[in-house]
Design brief:
mainly beta, Jelly Rolls, four-stranded antiparallel beta sheet, 1 helix, 13 strands, Ubiquitin 3 binding protein But2 C-terminal domain-containing protein
């Protein structure tokens, strides 16, 4: 009886071991050296176009009924030690979302965003990518054509996050979620 149980256990473990991937089968992965969270988030709102809403601890991106746009300006600081690495924009861990859950990210023409308003803000420069928030974890990359770039030697970069589609909202806590940069 003991021999039968022992033999069965060995057979089960052998079957499981053969199902494990070998080193050759593993897909190469980027190993993240550092995660850079935003150090400044400023929300701007179409319904208060001249009002600076100031620095916030959360980003809010929304659009309702073809208007009422809320967008977020997000700034990141880069340390000198990232020189020579690649950086990639990523989005994850929203506080809430509804509608399409899609957002687009653009570079903007200035890093001085603290007093920005909907009507007075840095110009939108280059499209970087589109994300779709579908749950409480990492967002799906819909268009990643500009998400990866050479990490700057040091300094700052700022981005604008906007809603895609109508009746859409994505909100994140800037301390632990939302737009971030992975250095690898």
């Amino acid at each position: 009886m003991k021999y039968a149980i022992f033999s069965s256990a060995i057979a089960i473990f052998a079957t499981l071991a053969t199902a494990l991937p070998t080193a050759e089968n593993l897909a190469p992965r980027d190993h993240v050296k550092e995660v850079i969270n935003s150090n400044l988030v400023v929300n701007i709102n179409e319904d208060a176009p001249e009002t600076p809403l100031g620095v916030s601890d959360k980003g809010i991106v929304s659009r309702a009924n073809g208007k009422h746009n809320s967008q977020a300006l997000v700034k990141f600081d880069f340390r000198e030690s990232l020189s020579g690495y690649k950086c990639r924009l990523a989005f994850g861990y929203p506080a809430q979302f509804s509608g399409t859950g899609e957002i687009q990210v653009y570079t903007i023409g200035d890093i001085n965003i603290a007093s920005s308003t909907f009507n007075h803000r840095p110009f939108r420069d280059q499209f970087k990518g589109t994300f779709r928030v579908t749950g409480w974890a990492e967002a799906e990359v819909v268009d990643g054509s500009g998400l990866t770039f050479d990490c700057p030697t040091q300094g700052a970069k700022a981005y604008e996050v906007v809603s895609v589609g109508d009746n859409n909202e994505v909100v994140w806590n800037a301390a632990w979620g939302g737009l971030r940069i992975d250095a690898f």
